Amino acid sequence: MKKKSMLFGLTMFSLAGASAALAADPAPTAISNKAAIDLVQTHANYVWTLVAAALVFFMQAGFAMVEAGFTRAKNAVNIMMKNLMDFCMGSIAFWAVGFGIMFGASETGWFGTSGFFLSDFTPGGDPWVLAFWMFQVVFCATAATIVSGAMAERTNFICYMIYSALISAVIYPVFGSWAWGSLFHGGGWLEKLGFIDFAGSTVVHSVGGWAALAGAIVLGPRLGKFGKDGKARPILGHNIPLASLGVFILWLGWFGFNPGSTTTADKSIAMIFVNTNLAAAAGGILAMIVSWIKFGKPEVGMTLNGALAGLVAITAGCNNVSPTSAVIIGAIAGTVVVFSVLFIERIKIDDPVGAVSVHGVCGAVGTLCAGIFNIGGTSLSMIGVQALGIAAAFLWTFPTAYGLFVILDKVLGLRVSREEEIEGLDHAEHGGVAYPDFGPSTQGGLQLG
Amino acid sequence: MKKIEAIIKPFQLDNVKDALNELGIKGMTVSEVRGYGRQRGHKEIYRGAEYQTEFLPKIKIEIVIDAAMTEKVVEEIRKSANTGKVGDGKIFVTPIESAIRIRTGERGKDAV
What we know:
- With about 450 residues, chain A is mostly helical.
- Chain A has helices at about 1-25, 35-70, 75-105, 130-150, 155-180, 190, 200-220, 240-255, 270-295, 300-315, 325-345, 355-370, 380-410, 420-425, 425-430.
- Chain A is built from 15 helices and no strands.
- The relative contact order of chain B is 0.31.
């Protein structure tokens, strides 16, 4: 209200000024009104950044629905709890520690050391840090929640919450400071080399994806996922419409994720918006075609993953590639994701929702493409820096997450007991079920043995 | 008295119910069941992995009738549930020792 009346006042003031000026003074110009125009622009930046933050926040719902849909009904409560706690734990951890590490003043270029507990904000001072924090915390939570899907249906809940707090406080912010620190008070070694990752194919998605890979490896596959002959057996998700709703929600949220990363209300958001949409569309189409050729039917799970793969891949280059390039990048990601999902299964890693392939692998692919398809031309050194960033994300995230999960496993037991896993985590971990009015009619294709 | 159990394709239920109503059968119990016979299941794909759905959804109808009506009822179910394709189901007939209506305590034929 206060802002609104201020704006109104300004308008009236300038109108009054204008009519008075008719008599004597020269007409106001963009230059003489610069202060007022700048203020309006600043307000627009706040509004755009916070609206985009709200859209990105809604992606948490998307992740929750995708994960729940692709897994069995007996674990749905656990999945809701993990996704809810990701955001709750993540918000507190990022407020207390993460934001300072990611965006605080950084002397070394490796991590920031100021601005913990939002200390950059003083009452009555510039509130931009609050808008910026809100936009960044939803990104942090996105990286954290990616891991949930790969570790679904078998993880000890307490271990998951500890992991969730630590990725938000340390793992994600440290890498983030290398690539994005200068967006606020920091400055990282990677961005100084010219690394392009506009909205976070690597910073958010690959970091989440590689942590997911570590989690899935340390946990091991779900009971019954691989037969005695070593062949992967499908464990059916219990609600494909829910998983599809999740993908639509994520797609919507991405319209905040990518265009919002300008944190500026200007004309550049139009191309970013279009690029985001085109890549997702191409990703979905290509994943459908590849699955059709490979399996004889246009398979829904792969097609949903394909749309997400396109979104993840365009995230790095959404601001510096043309719409035509966005189609190509989405198409590449949509193809890669199908083969990646099959490959991950072939090497006996159980990733129920395809998080490693969609976010880790396609995040890396998209980051490389941001260099290759750069609208102002590309060069070997540019692509080299992109590759360096991709490698740095893996070499930082995978070992730290792997170490964390191994320690959690030794101390608390990362995995639930065999009995609890068969019974379902809803009953064992949370003492309730998701669908009390419906009797279970299937184990989702699971045969133990 | 006899009990007739018929396992049929789910979408044939209305046909069978109407046919039985016309015969004057006043009640039935229906359950959703899963199973397979000679039809077996069919192949499906989930995220790139093929699997066999062995148990297909079926409807089981249970009715208890006077023994004299058995042939007529069985024939009527067979006709109304028939699509001519594999997977149409089966009919089982078993003897029933007694039947009691809970509300009135009637027994035997009067109870069904």
